[in-house]
TrEMBL record:
<feature type="domain" description="Fe-containing alcohol dehydrogenase-like C-terminal">
    <location>
        <begin position="193"/>
        <end position="377"/>
    </location>
</feature>
<dbReference type="InterPro" id="IPR018211">
    <property type="entry name" value="ADH_Fe_CS"/>
</dbReference>
<protein>
    <submittedName>
        <fullName>Iron-containing alcohol dehydrogenase</fullName>
    </submittedName>
</protein>
<dbReference type="Pfam" id="PF00465">
    <property type="entry name" value="Fe-ADH"/>
</dbReference>
<dbReference type="InterPro" id="IPR056798">
    <property type="entry name" value="ADH_Fe_C"/>
</dbReference>
<dbReference type="Pfam" id="PF25137">
    <property type="entry name" value="ADH_Fe_C"/>
</dbReference>
<keyword id="KW-0520">NAD</keyword>
<feature type="domain" description="Alcohol dehydrogenase iron-type/glycerol dehydrogenase GldA">
    <location>
        <begin position="9"/>
        <end position="181"/>
    </location>
</feature>
<dbReference type="GO" id="GO:0004022">
    <property type="term" value="F:alcohol dehydrogenase (NAD+) activity"/>
</dbReference>
<dbReference type="InterPro" id="IPR001670">
    <property type="entry name" value="ADH_Fe/GldA"/>
</dbReference>
<dbReference type="InterPro" id="IPR039697">
    <property type="entry name" value="Alcohol_dehydrogenase_Fe"/>
</dbReference>
<keyword id="KW-0560">Oxidoreductase</keyword>
<dbReference type="GO" id="GO:0046872">
    <property type="term" value="F:metal ion binding"/>
</dbReference>
<comment type="similarity">
    <text>Belongs to the iron-containing alcohol dehydrogenase family.</text>
</comment>
Length: 384
């Protein structure tokens, strides 16, 4: 018998052009003075300026905060909270890729708290420290198909002083409305389309491999992988394929919903590398995924046998899944090993310790120790 809590409450609006409903989504969530949070690259883009204008004309007020790094930091969050309070805002619009969405969710968390941000790191019952009434309502508009943060209750933020990534988690951080408008992803370049798409796949696959009991998440993970198998090659080949873009946006949301079951060693290592070297999270996941699967192989025979069947792969079992993954990764133009990013083994021991300490390692199918994660990292440096 099991005792579990499952949460899938986000209202999702899917369809090309539905970003025009952003003011309505704000009103439906009781937001009259939103702060739109995005990253530095998107801050002055046409899509952001249009969204700002629509909200200002309909709601009467909407301001912009665009000082979010590619791997958002505690300082980014603090600056966002300051902007929120200075503008007397009453809600947050998270608009952009996973970094912008995570930063916006952390800002929403901190708008009404008295403790510092790191006191809410996802360890034990730390989420109970938060005043739920002090968490601002959120609307999320993703512009990449990768993290699925628009339906998630967590935000990953870099603690630059400690050189680690920390996960903040609270059910009230889950956006009330997510708008999945594939037109917003059409300008995403091929390499980011590939990296974010493989990020979504990693979420689904690590959730599938997790030992946690969560049948709903298992089913969602399989559907997400089936959609990615069909549509990631299409969007990598043709970035203007609107139907495939929309399917990948949905698959990305499914991946985030699935990892309520947990993630694993891929994220444990990738988050450590991201904190140390500031590389793109999705790309790190894409490179690391086959190496962690190989390290977990002894515990994944039945899961991989089922997955090969569900994906209708030509080769059964673990070998079939690995062959499929490597082929998809190559077709997407993903680097085969970490050395291609300029990473070397000078910090190998530290990375092993950081990965072992990372919360994602707790739901890896095998509880590798620090030396085990160090070996996986070194394997990912050398290549297959």
């Amino acid at each position: 018998m099991h005792t579990s809590n499952w949460h899938y409450p986000t209202s999702i609006r899917v369809g090309a052009g539905r970003v025009r409903e952003l003011p309505d989504a704000c009103r439906a969530s009781g937001i009259k003075r939103p702060l739109l949070i995005t990253d530095r690259d998107l801050g002055h883009s046409d899509m952001i300026l249009k969204a700002l204008d629509d909200c200002q004309r309909t709601l009467g007020h909407c301001a912009l905060f665009d000082q979010v790094k590619g791997n958002p930091t505690g300082d980014n969050v603090a600056a966002g909270v300051q902007a929120y309070k200075a503008g007397q805002h009453d809600g947050v619009i998270a608009f952009g890729g996973g970094s912008a969405l995570d930063a916006a969710k952390a800002v929403a968390l901190m708008t009404g708290q008295r403790r510092p941000l790191w006191d809410f790191e996802d360890i034990g019952d730390n989420h109970l420290r938060a005043d739920p009434n002090g968490i601002a309502p959120l609307i999320a508009v993703p512009t990449t198909a990768g993290t699925g943060s628009e339906v998630g209750r967590a935000a990953v933020i870099t603690d630059e002083q400690a050189r680690v990534k920390r996960t903040m988690l609270h059910i009230r951080m889950m956006p009330r409305v997510a708008i999945l408008d594939a037109r917003l992803t059409l300008s995403l370049p091929r390499h980011l389309t590939a990296a974010t798409g493989m990020d979504a796949l990693t979420h689904c696959l690590e959730a599938w491999c997790s030992p946690v009991w969560h049948p709903m998440a298992e089913a969602v993970a399989v559907k997400g992988m089936q959609m990615i198998d069909r549509h990631l090659p299409r969007v990598v080949a043709d970035g203007q394929d609107l139907e495939a873009r929309e399917q990948m946006l949905v698959a990305s949301s499914l991946g985030a919903a699935a990892f309520q079951r947990g993630l694993g060693g891929v994220h444990a290592i990738a988050q450590s590398l991201g904190a140390l070297y500031d590389h793109h999270h999705g790309l790190l996941n894409a490179i690391l995924l086959p190496y962690v699967l190989l390290a977990n192989q002894s515990s994944l025979q039945s899961q991989m046998s089922d997955l090969a069947h569900y994906l209708r792969l030509p080769t059964a079992g673990f070998a079939g899944v690995l062959d499929w993954l490597l082929a998809l990764r190559e077709e997407s133009g993903i680097a085969p090993d970490l050395s291609m990013l300029g990473i070397d083994d000078r910090d190998a021991e530290l990375i092993g310790r950081m990965a072992f300490a990372d919360g994602c390692s707790h739901t890896n199918p095998i509880r590798h120790d620090a030396q085990g994660y160090q070996r996986i990292f070194c394997h990912a440096l050398r290549g297959l």
